[in-house]
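Q&A FORM
Asked by: J.P.
Topic: structure of Nucleoside triphosphate/diphosphate phosphatase

PROVIDED:
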Amino acid sequence: MGIPMEGDKIQIHSYKHNGHIHRVWEETRVLKGTQSLVIGGNDRTTVTESDGRTWITREPAICYFHARHWFNIIGMIREDGVYYYCNISSPFISDDEALKYIDYDLDIKVFPDMTFILLDEDEYEKHRREMNYPDVIDKILKNNVDKLIQWIRGRKGPFAPDFIDIWYERYLTYRS
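REPLIED BY: S.T.
REPLY: Here is the structure written out as tokens.
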């Protein structure tokens, strides 16, 4: 397993439980890379969907991936504050091709005032049945929804008041 190094440009690949590619982010700059944690930044990067459609992200984002947590967190920097999009997912792995994870449908959107909503519960249930998520995975995922909500309420990790600002400043040093 390759560990992304600070300064590297990497792709991010999201898969579904059945092994099919879900989404690819073309370019993310690694701001911190260890065996257990990758923090990256991107802005106006091309995203390719599984059906081949592409789109470009609209704002700068700081991405947080952990090798022991079943979620990843994207802090999107907008004029009215930081919005977070949290994917309930497998822990990441990394190889020479990309940083990779399995997307398990459930998402939490967090607003600048730290209110949040759980999204895509119906999609999760549909895919859980169709792809036969094992009961142990279902339990892990639901426990990690709870853990993520605790992080949001406790302003832990990427939800800490200065986290996004600090890493965005670091990201800007690579853009000059």
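FOLLOW-UP: Residues 9-173 form a domain with the FomD barrel-like fold fold (CATH 2.40.380.10).
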